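Query structure, 230 tokens:
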């Protein structure tokens, strides 16, 4: 059980590192005002992220239960991608039009500079939720090791780009970096693994149940870790 669970524990750790590394670099390389503006915009993004996160809680069990039924799995996954794409595009469009009003309403006019940061962060959220869906698809197909390799690469790229973009462009630069790395992560997970034949469903039932339990436990640990960091 521990051997099967450790990739998911590693995934939670990598996700926490990615979430915090950008803000830590921003605090060290810019002013307190810049870090505050980014944090304000990011708070709205994290509030929006609660919706797809709740959706993911239902999506993985659905994908895992269909692991032996390729046609149903593909259809379910495509519907999930359509829903997540619609959510992300809508959020990005709203941020383009109403960023200043949203920031002013929630945080006050003192945080108006955060309005320029919100749209790229919402674009990063669009790529991020799609990447999250592909991550769960890979999990359902026993591809957690590939996901971890992609996540580790993303952290390296994010830190490297941030060291250049933050001094040059401040918090907007960091937001742009997040767009790039989330799009890169999505691209690296885009080509999904081959599905098993339909008649393999019974043979996979027990393993799917075990994996579902392991991932649910890992997700719960990640949520606790996430609440610790934010």
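Result returned for the query:
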């Amino acid at each position: 059980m521990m051997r099967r669970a450790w990739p998911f524990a590693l995934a939670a750790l990598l996700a926490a590192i990615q979430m915090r590394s950008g803000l830590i670099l921003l605090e060290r390389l810019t002013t307190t005002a810049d870090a505050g503006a980014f944090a304000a915009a990011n708070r709205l993004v994290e509030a929006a992220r609660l919706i797809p996160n709740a959706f993911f809680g239902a999506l993985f069990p659905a994908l895992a239960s269909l692991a032996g039924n390729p046609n149903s799995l593909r259809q379910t996954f495509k519907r999930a991608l359509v829903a997540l794409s619609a959510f992300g595009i809508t959020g990005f469009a709203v941020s383009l039009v109403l960023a200043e009003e949203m920031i002013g309403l929630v945080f006050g006019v003192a945080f108006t500079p955060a309005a320029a940061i919100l749209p790229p962060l919402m674009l990063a959220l669009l790529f991020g939720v799609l990447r999250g869906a592909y991550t769960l698809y890979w999990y359902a197909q026993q591809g957690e090791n590939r996901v971890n390799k992609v996540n580790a690469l993303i952290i390296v790229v994010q830190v490297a780009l941030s060291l250049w973009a933050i001094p040059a462009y401040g918090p907007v630069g960091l937001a742009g970096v997040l767009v790039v790395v989330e799009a890169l992560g999505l691209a690296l997970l885009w080509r999904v693994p081959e599905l098993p034949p339909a008649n393999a469903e019974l043979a996979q039932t027990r393993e799917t149940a075990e994996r579902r339990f392991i991932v649910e436990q890992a997700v719960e640990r990640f949520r606790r870790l996430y609440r610790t960091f934010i």
